[in-house]
Amino acid sequence: MFRSRSKEDQAPAATQVEPEVSERDPQAPKGRPTPKRKESEALRRAVAKPPANRKEAAKRARETRRVALAKQREALLSGDERHLPVRDRGEVRRFTRDFVDGKWHMAEFFLPVAVAILVLSMLPSLAARNLALLLWLFVIVMIVFDSVLTARRLKKTLRARFPGESLKGATAYALMRTLQMRRMRLPRPQIKRGEPPR
């Protein structure tokens, strides 16, 4: 008699505690980009079952590496922080890139000027060779001066902007970026010249 009552009392309580299932509106945005078909297939194959042998495992590892490199390449062109190489990630590195990309630097003209100097030094004229030597000296002095100035300004700005964070390697990262011509820099510049860093 007591058992039947306790079962009856428990039955309505069990039916009342059903969790509400909320379905996502199919028209609502997902909040993330849709993966490409090749990427999803590679991921599905990797998760589906363990590799049968070493050859299969190596093949899967190559496929995973290829997908990761493709994402990294796209991130270098678009500036997507999630897939950038480790050396380019973080707010300090992004600010450093913007700091360099927002200004003109003498070092970025090094390659074109070096080609001009090479052509001048190959000419038979002694005056052209002397000019090439003077130009070479001028460019080197200007690059050193600009690099020292950029490094000092960057260090001061980084200390003020990121007081608690590690700034190790940021100056060398910036100077290496100044040596590249703007259109060849990776990750691609995200600001125009003259704009302040973000």
Describe this protein's structure.
- The protein is mostly helical.
- The chain has two domains: 38-84, no CATH class; 88-184, no CATH class.
- Helix content is 61%, strand content 0%.
- It is built from seven helices and no strands.
- It has helices spanning 2-16, 37-48, 54-78, 91-101, 110-122, 126-161, 170-178.
- Helix 5 (110-122) packs antiparallel against helix 6.
- The longest helix has 36 residues, at 126-161.
- The radius of gyration is 30 Å and the shape is extended.
- The termini are far apart.
- Residues 11-15 have low confidence and may be disordered.
Secondary structure layout:
Blueprint: H1 2-16, H2 37-48, H3 54-78, H4 91-101, H5 110-122, H6 126-161, H7 170-178
Helix pairs in contact: 2-3, 4-7, 5-6, 6-7
Question: How would you summarize what this structure contains?
Answer:
The chain has 198 residues and is an all-alpha fold. The protein has helices at 2-16, 37-48, 54-78, 91-101, 110-122, 126-161, 170-178.
Between the first and last Cα atoms, what is the distance in angstroms? Answer: 75 Å
- Radius of gyration, in Å, reads 30 Å
H/E topology pattern: HHHHHHH
Total helical segments = 7
Overall average pLDDT = 83
Classify the helix fraction into a percent range.
55-70%
Class inferred from helices and paired strands: mainly alpha
Instruction: Assign an overall shape.
Output: extended
List keywords for this structure.
2 domains, single chain, mainly alpha, 198 residues
